[in-house]
Structures are given as C-alpha cells and as structure tokens.
Design goal:
- The structure is a single chain.
- The protein is mainly beta.
- The protein has one domain.
- Helices cover 0% and strands 56% of the residues.
- It has strands at 13-16, 27-30, 35-37, 39-42, 45-48, 51-53, 56-64, 69-71, 74-81, 84-86, 89-97, 102-104, 107-114, 119-121, 124-126.
- Strands 1, 2, 4, 5, 7, 9, 11, 13 and 15 form a 9-stranded parallel beta sheet that branches.
- The relative contact order is 0.13.
C-alpha cells in the first residue's frame, strides 16, 4: 500500500533488496507522484523523484531528482541531490549538490561538491 495514508500510528518499513552481487548495477526507482511514509532502505542504488516522509538508508548511491523530496534523515554511501531535503543527511563518501538542490538541516559528508545555485541552511561538517 505505497502512497496510501493509514490511520494507524504503526511504523512502516520498506526494504528493497535487489541482486546482492558486488557487480550489480541495479537501481530502485521511486517515481514522481509516489509517496512513502516510514523507513525506506535499499542495498542498491536509488533514484528518488517522489516524496519520502521518514528515514532513507541507501547502501550505494542516492540520486535525488528535481521533484524528489525527503522530510526526514538520509544515510547513504554517495549522493547527488537536485531536490529538497528537510532533515539530516549523512554521506560516507561524496555529496554533490546540483544547482536546484535545497537542504534545510545538517550535512555530514567526507567530500562535498556544490554547484552554483544550490542552497543549504544548517550545520555542515565535511572531512
């Protein structure tokens, strides 16, 4: 029941498990118009163009399109952000903020690239 609103306050968890091969290039796509409430996790790459209200965990690369939005915390290996984040983002490797990126919350990353036009408000810890 993705996208359906529930009257129950129970926590929801969505786990995406694709091919566990180290050479796998599988990508989980959350399309525009998709709304997820609760925890979302993937062991593979994620392309996010929809809305996630809750926690996002990605073991590989997270690519957030311009229509993508997360209202909650993100943990990932690498990230390319073109959308909106309201919450904390923690990136083990490189965080790339494209020109349309908007972040309101704390940023923690090993490396960060910021394109002209990208905006963020909050703490930023790099290194």
């Amino acid at each position: 029941m993705l996208g359906a609103k529930s009257k129950q306050p129970a926590e929801k968890t969505l786990t995406v498990v694709a091919n566990s091969s180290k050479e796998s290039q599988d990508t989980c796509v959350v399309a525009t118009g998709t709304n997820i409430e609760g925890k979302f996790s993937s062991t593979e790459n994620v392309r996010l163009d929809g809305l996630v209200k809750g926690e996002v965990k990605c073991s590989q690369r997270l690519v957030m399109g311009e229509t993508g939005k997360v209202e909650g915390n993100i943990r990932t290996k690498d990230a390319i952000i073109m959308g909106t984040i309201e919450g904390e983002i923690v990136v083990e490797g490189t965080l790339h903020l494209k020109g349309t990126a908007k972040i309101k919350g704390s940023i923690t990353a090993k490396f960060m690239v910021v394109d002209e036009g990208a905006r963020y408000v909050g703490d930023c810890k790099i290194g």
